[in-house]
Amino acid sequence: MWVFCIFAVLFSVVGPSRADWSEGTWQFSLSSEQYSDPLTLSQLDGRNGYRAMQARPGLNLMQLDQAAMISYQPPDSEQTWSWVHRRKARLVMNNDTARRIGEIISKNSSAEDWVLLPQIQYRAFAGQGLDWRGKIAGASQWALKGGVQILALNRMTQAQANGQISHAASSQTYGLQLQTLRSDNRLTFPYQDTGYSTGYAVLTQAHVQARIGAWQFRAGFSDVGRLYWTQLPQQVRSYNTSTNTRDANGYLLITPSLEGQNSQSHAIWSAPWSGDVQARWQQTSSTAWVLPWQYVPQFGWLPAIGVERKMGSYEVGLVWRQHQRDAVAQWRWHGLSLMLNMGSSAHSRLWGVSYQLPL
User: Fold this and answer.
1) How far apart are CA 14 and CA 19, in angstroms?
2) Which end of the chain has fewer beta carbons closer than 10 Å to its terminal beta carbon, N or C?
3) Taking a C-beta distance cutoff of 8 angstroms, is the pair 173, 167 a contact?
4) Residue 257: DSSP 8-state
């Protein structure tokens, strides 16, 4: 609760005065981005869709980022104060892990011997709270902008796996020497402490912008910060077994050799952050070319290229995202902004809508 008190003090000192609320600009926005490498989004939403997992070469990424915001910008100010609701999740795993997991949970068995050291990293949170953004420093040709977001969390979860999985083709036997860890505020188990338990997040962002002739450059980061939860339930499962037993439907049966390692503790995690760089070339007064690249830790870069054009009172744009294999169309007119991805990729879904209301 103390983080919200700090935000309230900051708001009272540098926030808009009561007289400002009748002026300025209000903005209402909704956005959603879903992406999955090893599964299509329809398979991801289905009950047994994960059995159709098809790994992509290299690292495989699955992520979700959704936000709803109501923002206010005082007149003659570069500060923005917002109420925000966020949902964010990210999973990164290598090609071998995705491919072998898909094999294990399907009815298909490999015709070769293999040994896997799984690499799985998953972290997610959801909550609502307050957001401040503004200009920290700058001059005529450059600017440093930043922000802070403080959320009361209603969801915080992560999953990890360490150890070894092997397969013997001659006997169609799978061996597991594996330990999995699941931490989740919704996890329940016997003798759980149901007393006071709460979570919050403190997230920051910063970007530096520069202009050199017809070129504009931008670089920075988003969601760098910490996730906190008191008395977060945690479950550890250990597997030290081998099996080739399948159920009546043909699926492999795996039973933990050791269960019941449950606990609760105060959790402090790094938030799933991202970086970005952008170069923009103003070719003419009505046409600009952009290179907006995103960086995902433990995964790498997501390159993109796009074009923007002004046509009277309209502004339109189109961005091709190479890894997602889709095109994002943008349209702006008198404060209304729409965004939607297009293309044949069933692995990506992105949309956004916002409206600015000057007073």
Assistant:
1) 14
2) N
3) yes
4) S
pLDDT over threshold 60, residue 268: yes
Contacts of 303 (CB under 8 A, 6+ apart): 291, 293, 321, 322, 323
Kindly tell me the burial class for residue 123, based on how many C-beta atoms sit within 10 Å of its own C-beta (0-12, 13-18, 19 or more). Answer: buried
Contact between residue 256 and residue 184 where contact means Cβ atoms under 8 Å apart: no
- Residue 24 near residue 74 (C-beta atoms within 8 A): yes
Nearest of 57, 184, 171, 59 to residue 113 by alpha carbon = 171
Task: Say how far apart CA 98 and CA 75 lie, in whole Å.
Answer: 51
Nearest by Cα to 120 from 101, 144, 147, 140: 101
Query: Does the predicted model carry a pTM greater than 0.90?
Result: no
Kindly report the backbone phi and psi dihedral angles of residue 111, in degrees, each rounded to the nearest multiple of 5, phi listed first.
-95, 15
**Residue bearing tokens 């400002």:** 20
Percent of the chain with pLDDT over 70: 90
Tell me the CA distances in angstroms from 188 to 194, 229, 260, 316, one per residue in order. 9, 15, 12, 49
Enumerate the β-bridge partners of residue 51. Answer: none
Contact 337, 353 (CB under 8 A): yes
Displacement of CA 346 from its chain's centroid (Å): 18
Residue 37 vs residue 259, higher pLDDT: 37
- What the block records as the tokens of 68 is 């709803």
User: C-alpha dihedral over 251, 252, 253, 257, to 10 degrees?
Assistant: -160
Q: Cα 16 to the chain's mean position, in Å? A: 31
Structure tokens at 83: 């109420």
